[in-house]
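Hello, quick one for you while I still have it in my head. Could you read through the record and tell me how the tokens relate to the sequence? No rush at all, and the record is pasted right below.
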Amino acid sequence: MKKIIVLFLCFASLLLCAAQASSQKETKKPGDAKKKVAKPVLSVVCTPATHIAKEGEKVEFKITSTTQDPITVTISLDGSSEKVFKKVTMKSPVVLSASLSTPGFLHCDARSRGVVARYGVAVAPEKIRYARKAPADFKKFWESALAESKRLPLDLQIKAINPDKGYDSYVLSCANVNGKRAYALYACPKNVKGKVPLQVMFGGGEAYYSKAIVPGGAKSAKSRFKQDMAVLFLHLPPYEPQDTWSKAREFHKEFLKKLGLRRYILVGMDDPKKFYGYSAILGCLRLLESVAKRPEIDREKIVFHGASHGGMFGAYLSYFFPFKAAFIGVPSNCEINAFLEGRYGSTVREWKKYWKNTEYYELVYFAPGIKCPVMVGVGFHDRSCPPTGVYSFYNTLPEGKKQIFNKIRNGHGDAPKEYSPATWKFLADHIAPQAKK
């Protein structure tokens, strides 16, 4: 009986401890755990709603937030920290206005607890022009570059890759200036009857490709253009494309590490003929011309599609090569030396040191020599490739064969849903099967 009583008391003690623990959990104070506070959602409304104003017209920005956290709002020219018109920090709503007496872009930057919202308004964009003139020897420089490239034996090498039932795919390479080689990937439908159009692409960012992109890229081209297409992917770095995207990223990272640079575009900035763009442009052009001569290619139906870094190279190549049409999206290197005019022009700080050398790569100077129809994409609050520079390039293109897509609520990499389809339709219309040559 004594043992039973002891066991009963032990069991009761355990029940009491459990009840106390449960009670402590239930009565835990809210302050004992950190609350998750929702981040603010910022919205910006512009007047005029079209995001396009006249010179001297009042432009108003109204910024609202879902919280009462302070918002820091800056109104500037092109997003430049050196050309700030107004800057305030206050709670929602914030209403600021500004105007420009000369063509350009007003930039609104709103920030609250790490959240950023940007908007841009164009002021008389059709009148925007780059004030600086091309170097006196600009044409002579590039004529000499072409002559140097043509004197060099081509040494074209073609290596088959990625066996596929419907497409033949290859790595192409050729000799290039400055002791380098140029590389590209090429895919074409098997058993081609007659000739097919060619789509040429150059990537954004560091513009390297992986072999994994072919022949899938050619299949995508067929879907977009509604006909069989060959595709040429121009590879920027002077080494052979890697097998997969993961290998490509790692290889390029190690490549830059050996160069001691954070980006390949910084190679040789102290000499315009050693600068990365010199060999890259000439190498891409050699491979493009080699593919254009292939028997399966319809030379009258070669188009270009690229954005950012790719848009820039689309302009370079369009200057030298007769594309049927080219889409040049948010191109880099437009007004890269705008800082000399007291404006924001590029995120690449090294331009300021080597600006005399990089002037030979200013896109605005290439624009008058581009003869094919061109569609340009521009982001109204683009910080990587400022819209003022893009419009300077666009306005310098020959009249009658150009059109621009204004991404009025977007920046560099984002876009409205109709943007991408519009770019492909622009090119497809120029090489439609029923179109006359």
Notes: The domain at 42-127 is CATH 2.60.40.2470 (Immunoglobulin-like). Residues 1-27 have pLDDT under 50 and may be disordered. The chain has two domains: 42-127, 138-430.
